[in-house]
Amino acid sequence: MARVELTAQRGKIEARIGEDTVLFKSSGAESEVGHWPTEYILAALGSCFSGTVFSYARTKGLPLEKVMVALEGEVVSGPSRIASITMEVEFLGNLTRAEKEQLLAVGERACTVMNTLKRGVETITTRLRD
Asked: Of 33, 73, 103, 118, whose CB count within 10 A is highest?
């Protein structure tokens, strides 16, 4: 199970992820330090996809040396959300076109974050702490 603890106050939003502290921007909290939460969604997608591809390449003995990913998300309102994501992927290594297409397909099929974004989260439960 993944777990993150977050503290938000005017001017500062911090998320504790393991031993690390990550800072977020928010116009509502008047915080300009860190990154926008939507940027972290894109980064999570790219890192999950890349790690999935590397894992597959290793098990298949493919000479994958580097994965380069550029992501853009279109943020819309009504309700506020990322409506679409474009992900451009480049695989570096002595790979054939067929191997690159295979890596792309595996990343699209097996990446946990991509599957979550494509299929949606089944349940989000919010409750007040005592």
From this structure: 103
Where do we find the tokens 């990154």? 35
CA 27, 29, 22, 48 torsion: positive or negative? negative
Cα–Cα distance measured from residue 45 to residue 87, given in angstroms and rounded to the nearest whole number: 9
> How many Cβ atoms are within 10 Å of 69's Cβ, its own excluded?
18
DSSP-assigned letter for residue 29: T
Check residue 18 and give left, alpha or beta (phi > 0: left; psi -120 to 50: alpha).
Answer: left
Quickly list H helices, the chain.
37-60, 97-110, 112-119
Q: How confident is the model at residue 20, as a pLDDT? A: 94
At residue 100, does pLDDT exceed 90? yes
What is the SS3 assignment for 104? helix
pTM: 0.90
